[in-house]
Amino acid sequence: MQTLLFEQDVQRIADDVTGPITYQPEVVSPVVAQAWFAALHVQGDWHASTRMMYERLVGVPRLHCHYAVTDPALPKVLRDALIVVRQHVDAPFNSIGLNFYRDEHDSVAPHNDKLHELVRHQPIALLSLGATRTMVIQRKQPPRLKTALELETGSLLVMGWNAQLNYDHGIPKLREPAGPRISVAFRVRPERENKTW
């Protein structure tokens, strides 16, 4: 994987040894980002899900959907977004996962992506659309450095494969009102027969 970091406004959150993790605002303009958000809000195949927590079934606090890049049902807006992301990150993305944070109550707990679900040494690229939300990125080992990163609409966060070993990331709930946000995550998944994306 090669991340194309020639842009001057790229912010480096983690170095190449433990990451890399980089952030770049306005990969797409606010106008385009808003149009893409509106399209995905309507066209996304959104689902709610549940999980076991503390021995009881609870709702996951966000909606989600997934597409294979080769899926004939892939919305055109995601095809357009993929073209843009590939201009910034040199990776053979084949999976697109979306999370819809409806308001300040929706969140995702600190976690790292499961490495067995990713192709080794390939990155994750996260395009943010809609309202700005804070992502907290924390190193797993001492010093447990923590970064609170404001993910603006149209921005691109890129996490190297190695970053999943060394950092957790999450979107906390907020006490104050927040507008809706869609995150679009581009990944390289292992090719498997009958894979459900």
Number of strands: 15
Radius of gyration over all CA atoms, rounded: 16 Å
Q: Note the run of SSEs as H and E.
A: EEEHEEEHEEEEEEEHEE
The CATH architecture name reads: Sandwich
What proportion of the residues is helical, as a percent range?
Answer: 10-25%
Q: Which outline best applies?
A: globular
Brief summary of the model shown:
By secondary structure, the protein is of the alpha+beta class. The chain has helices at residues 30-43, 76-88, 163-166, and strands spanning 2-3, 11-14, 21-24, 50-53, 56-59, 63-68, 89-90, 95-101, 108-111, 124-130, 133-139, 146-151, 156-159, 167-171, 181-187. Strand 2 and strand 3 (21-24) form a beta hairpin.
Describe this structure in words.
With 197 residues, the protein is an alpha+beta fold. The protein has one domain (13-47, 60-187): Jelly Rolls (Sandwich). Helix content is 16%, strand content 37%. It contains 3 helices and 15 strands. The chain has helices at 30-43, 76-88, 163-166, and strands at 2-3, 11-14, 21-24, 50-53, 56-59, 63-68, 89-90, 95-101, 108-111, 124-130, 133-139, 146-151, 156-159, 167-171, 181-187. The strands form 4 sheets. The protein has a 7-stranded antiparallel β-sheet. Strands 9-14-11-12 form a 4-stranded antiparallel β-sheet. A hairpin with a 6-residue loop joins β11 and β12 (146-151). It starts with a strand and ends in a 10-residue tail after the last strand. Mean pLDDT is 91; it is low at 1-6.
